[in-house]
Amino acid sequence: MKIIGIADTTFARFDMGGAAADELKRNGTGFKIIRCTVPGIKDLPVACKKLIEEQNCDIVIALGMPGPKDKDKMCAHEASQGLIQAQLMTNTHIIEVFVHEDETSDSKTLAFLADRRAREHALNAYNLLFRPDDLAKSAGKGLRQGFDDAGPIR
Amino acid sequence: MKIIGIADTTFARFDMGGAAADELKRNGTGFKIIRCTVPGIKDLPVACKKLIEEQNCDIVIALGMPGPKDKDKMCAHEASQGLIQAQLMTNTHIIEVFVHEDETSDSKTLAFLADRRAREHALNAYNLLFRPDDLAKSAGKGLRQGFDDAGPIR
Amino acid sequence: MKIIGIADTTFARFDMGGAAADELKRNGTGFKIIRCTVPGIKDLPVACKKLIEEQNCDIVIALGMPGPKDKDKMCAHEASQGLIQAQLMTNTHIIEVFVHEDETSDSKTLAFLADRRAREHALNAYNLLFRPDDLAKSAGKGLRQGFDDAGPIR
Amino acid sequence: MKIIGIADTTFARFDMGGAAADELKRNGTGFKIIRCTVPGIKDLPVACKKLIEEQNCDIVIALGMPGPKDKDKMCAHEASQGLIQAQLMTNTHIIEVFVHEDETSDSKTLAFLADRRAREHALNAYNLLFRPDDLAKSAGKGLRQGFDDAGPIR
Amino acid sequence: MKIIGIADTTFARFDMGGAAADELKRNGTGFKIIRCTVPGIKDLPVACKKLIEEQNCDIVIALGMPGPKDKDKMCAHEASQGLIQAQLMTNTHIIEVFVHEDETSDSKTLAFLADRRAREHALNAYNLLFRPDDLAKSAGKGLRQGFDDAGPIR
Question: How far apart are CA C123 and CA C26, in angstroms?
Answer without folding.
Answer: 10
